[in-house]
Amino acid sequence: MRVDFNVPLDANGKVTDNSRIKAALPTIQKIAKDGGRVILMSHFGRPNGKEEKYSLKQVVEELENLLGKKVVFVDECIGEKSLEQTSQLKKGEIALLENVRFHKEETEGDEFFAGQLAEHGDVFVNDAFGAAHREHASTAVIARFFEHDKLFGALMEKEIKNLGKVLYGSTKPVTAIIGGAKVSSKIEIIENLMDSVDNMIIGGGMAFTFIRAMKGRIGSSLTEDKRLQTALDIMDLAKQRGVNFYLPSDAIIADKFANDADHKTCDIKQIPDGWMGLDIGPASTKRFAETILHSRTILWNGPMGVFEMDNFQTGTKKIAEAIAGATQAGSFSLVGGGDSVAALSKYGLGEKMSYVSTGGGAMLEYLEGKELPGIKAIKASSMAGAEEE
User: Fold this and answer.
1) pLDDT score of 112 more than 70
2) pLDDT of the residue at 385
3) How many domains does the chain have?
4) 37 catalytically annotated
5) pTM score, two decimals?
């Protein structure tokens, strides 16, 4: 079973955020309860060869605590010694293989390496949505060795179903809130969503590229000068598709990039030289929140400002609260992306969303309309099997 246990650790090697491990538990527990022998594989960090600081051994204690049962740690993911350990598992027992990225063949998508991993099991279950956009040995290539014995885990199914609600089966009005630093990293998601949404709200650093493209003065705010035409094209596309396109009208500006900087509210098109926008202003926050509260389906990806600094977190916090309020009133909300999820965690609002995605890059690529290798690999054989039957 491929899982995503790429979790943050503190200086003592203790897991600081176990949400990804928790997300995999239902599938692990079901297989074990049904008498399967569960062999887990995951990547962890970006090691250069075998580095002890990237050993999955550090995750075992947290996994055991969450499962309430012993987990066998196998200190290699391929080879005779590891196969001997996994073959000795009894029904319902669980093993965790060492970091698959200790072998460069993993990220190279090497078929022989994938075949070595495949020797551990009779059935392949992919439940690592966070890694589904990578065509790596353990996420996609391995599926070739289980022509009719591969399937999605509960988490993957849930991710696909909830993302599908935004793209294909949404209750209108649909609002997408896209934030973060750069337009360039979100162009395709914005364009692809134009067919699905009624309202598109833009915040965060990327908003300044749009303001600059409209001849606004943005001081020393973050901007991508090479993307000014792209910004204008996106606004034109919104107009063509009848999508309400919302940009901030005001910003909280600062004289330096620091929490203790002098700061004030300013018209977003009139930012003085030497000042930079670090959050959306109160008028923008109010307007965005009203739109969100009148929405029936909401997608949020990317913060509204530098929420890590207390003086520039208000916009992100208020937007998160508005989404929580709309959800409580019966709307469907989907939140994804590292920074947005971190913001929900900071404000204790994760439980108040309909669904929080475990995949950052994978979620973005799915919403861009791309076919993810980890999903395609499972579907390909399933369809072939269905046709033969």
Assistant:
1) yes
2) 37
3) 2
4) no
5) 0.86
